[in-house]
Prior knowledge:
Rossmann fold; alpha/beta; Helicase, Ruva Protein, domain 3; seven-stranded mixed beta sheet; 12 helices; two-stranded antiparallel sheet; 39% helix; elongated
Amino acid sequence: MTGSEALAQAVRDLRGAGVDDPARDARRLLAMAMGIDPGRLTLHLHDALGPGEEARFREHIQARLTRQPVAQIVGYRDFYGRRFIVTPAVLDPRPDTEILIEAALAEPFDTVLDLGTGSGCILLTLLKEMPGAWGLGTDLSPKALEVAKQNRTALRLDGPAVLREGSWFDAVEGGPFDLIVSNPPYIAEGDMAGLAPEVRDWEPTMALTPGGDGLDAYRIISAGAQAHLVPGGRLMVEIGPDQGDAVAALFTAAGFENTRILPDLDGRDRVVVGNAP
Length: 277
């Protein structure tokens, strides 16, 4: 079987399973099975697949047919120009989170705290983009922290990046910080059933929803952040597109100043920022 023939069959199978953009996913998985860069796949589509390549591709497609995310199958996701290890223990880094990165980098900082660090993509990206800075990432999940540690080592940040296990501020040592960032669980409990299977069934529930109205993490973070920020220090969190006003109100009620809501590239509310007094 040639790569082209295998690809055509895989696209049909994925389309039949309801996978969005089956051609994109099949091409990425075929390139991995063949051990080539996805950008070079077209040059090799007429090559005959070896037995090992064909078996690997079938295995990858079977995993995708269960709606396992492509990032988990291939084991990584590119985020802000860098490669991050991804497993079912962590959220798949998403392009929307790069809005938070851009907002954080708009002003210099020497110290940063990342609450609920997961894969470490936010903390480690900020430290790579701000040489000389030091950061702490906390997470309640030991399995997530293992992934973050692997990413930390891969990016050569074992010195400036500290990772600690614990719930929100319970694991914080050191500070105060110039910047606190977080992409916390924010999906309302009633919205979980409507999520795509790739998210609902494969990503960690504790990183997706706090239950209830989805705002509990923001209540904890906004109430406790000032004790860990320098005067004028920034707090910024990623939010769901319908949560801007509610989270901004929590910031204001907690005493934060200059609270503002930043949109993503589609114009939807994506990040809330406030300054400590």
